[in-house]
Amino acid sequence: MPENTLVTFPAGELTAETTIRLTVPVGDRHGIVCATTPFHPIDHTWPDQPADQGTLTVGGQALAVEDCVIGAAPRDGSAPISTGDDIEVRRDDPDWNWYVVHVVAADPGAVTGERAGLEVDPVWRHGLSAGHTMCELVGLALNRELAGRWTKPVKDDALGHPDFDKLAITRSRIQPTGSVDHYRLGKSLRRKGFSADRLATELPELEAGINAVMERWVAEDATVGVETEGPGVDAMRTFYCELSDGAVRVPCGGTHVTRTGEIGFTQVSLSLSDDGSELRMEAARQLP
């Protein structure tokens, strides 16, 4: 099987000239694996950031990349490439190779070995990158505002506050205009020492605190980026942000802007489910 796909999206790249390694079926559509790509795929294990969109041009034919997914196959070639939820091994399995699969509707034909041009939609990418950076920061701001509700020591976040965001989150969705995160307020969290007493009545105060912190962090125009341990799609990547409150470094496989000022104005709203078992945080951004 071909070696792992090399990716350039951590550095913010939007274009590449590359070689097509192979093609694979993806449902009723067609998947194209290239040696190198700037496309960020959706992660089937934590599908918070949607895939990049754009075009793949081969043999003078521009194909719309409608989706981009993770693929994996045994290195010894004993099985074909699996994609998305059909992958049954962990990302760190040393006996498997990992790929970015560009999904197109039209049959590309016999293109293995051909040169191809890849181009990511820059507006879509920037929106998702800003949404993802905002999502990381509002999680930290939420932790800060909820810090006083913990009665037992738990793991801290990158800024030294109890990491409610990582301990309670159940799902997250990022879009160019913002993000929505859901948190489970169950028995497990209470046993860890979190108190949800009077949370419903204090939501407006919490919102105000988060929004004030976000306004300050955006105004700082702090440096943001992605560090990576290697060039392959399987490499560990880390989001970093040099805030005045401290240096943030957390594992993250997504894309990000280069400065917090690119996020623009942020408005966070909080709500509880009817039975009080789930907290929902919606963060909306407006272009700067």
Automatic annotation (TrEMBL):
SUPFAM superfamilies: ThrRS/AlaRS common domain
UniProt keyword list: Aminoacyl-tRNA synthetase, Ligase
GO MF terms held by the record: aminoacyl-tRNA ligase activity; nucleotide binding
Source superkingdom: Bacteria
Protein name: Alanyl-tRNA synthetase
Lineage summary: Bacteria, Bacillati, Actinomycetota, Actinomycetes, Micromonosporales
